[in-house]
Amino acid sequence: MSECTHDCSTCGESCGSRQEPQSLLKEHNPNAHVGKVYGIVSGKGGVGKSMVTSQLAVTMRRRGHSVGVLDADVTGPSIPKVFGVRGPATGTEDALNPCLSSTGIEVMSVNLLLENETDPVVWRGPVISGVVQQFWTDVLWNCDYLFVDMPPGTGDVSLSVFQSIPLDGIIIVASPQELVSMVVEKAVKMAEMMDIPIVGIVENMSYITCPDCGKKLYLFGEGKTREAAARHCLPLLAQMPIDPKLAELSDAGRIEDFQGDWLASAADVLESK
Ligand code: ADP
């Protein structure tokens, strides 16, 4: 047997001092209540991940569930803005209170802690990961469903969320082009490597509805994304149109007023788990 380096991760010997790999998962605040936790991920930015996160939250809230949104997209936080929620968040020595939206959705985001919400977050990866972990460990969540708006891609903050927050599953958001080219495949593989179940895919910006005749126009071809999702054995949970009203409501901080129910089947799936 070679000399012990005390680094079991690089050694295959099963000696008496071998330590099993430790879970990096963190507990939430002991005074918090959190039911199911779902991460919303995308292969790249700008595909509507925050839009889908906020609409899922609204849909579940409308069905009578208590809901929270943890904004882990620290360098591009948009959750407080779309809900029209303003800081500063209050707290004590060891706990932070989430802010509440007009329908009672709990929100925590770095923007609720910054003095000025347009201040850039110029922190390095480990600091950002630490903040996201604190949003899990220190916030007094009281919700049946917590949605985590993840940073785009598969960088170190995403990895840290996967390792430290006990996710019940992830939902992948992709645009039609992304789905066909499977740009999201890296996110899928990352979740698989971390043993996190994939609930399914929400395709955003799938089509536009003609304002004159009501016909759905699939700009990238209908059916291709369903095929792409099936090829990768991922359920297609919903297809959301490009709707100027959505962009208008989110810019005005009134996303809770949207009328579409495109995510109803995604909500059904979450309720059945
Ligand atoms: P991401 O979180 O993936 O970076 P966002 O959710 O912030 O993307 O969306 C990017 C922009 O596109 C936002 O201005 C948002 O309001 C707009 N947007 C997203 N989805 C839609 C949609 N289905 N219809 C209209 N605008 C949308």
CATH fold-level label: Rossmann fold
Largest beta sheet: strand ordering: 3-4-2-5-1-6-7-10
Q: Look at the structure and give the CATH class.
A: Alpha Beta
The CATH homology group name? P-loop containing nucleotide triphosphate hydrolases
- CA-to-CA gap between the ends? 48 Å
**Ions, cofactors, ligands: which are bound?**
adenosine-5'-diphosphate
Count of discrete alpha- or pi-helical segments spanning 4 or more residues: 9
Number of domains: 1
Kindly name the structural category: alpha/beta
Approximate shape: globular
Low-confidence stretches: none
Output the radius of gyration: 20 Å
General description of the model:
By secondary structure, this protein is an alpha/beta fold. The protein has a single domain (32-272), classed as Rossmann fold (3-Layer(aba) Sandwich). It is built from 9 helices and 10 strands. It has helices at 49-62, 79-83, 125-137, 156-164, 176-181, 185-193, 224-231, 244-251, 264-272, and strands spanning 33-42, 67-71, 99-100, 106-108, 142-149, 169-174, 198-203, 208-209, 216-217, 236-239. Helix 3 (125-137) packs parallel to helix 4. The model has no long low-confidence stretch (mean pLDDT 89). Residues 42, 45-51, 78, 152, 204-205, 240, 242-243, 246-247, 250 line the site of adenosine-5'-diphosphate. Adenosine-5'-diphosphate (ADP) binds at residues 42, 45-51, 78, 152, 204-205, 240, 242-243, 246-247, 250.
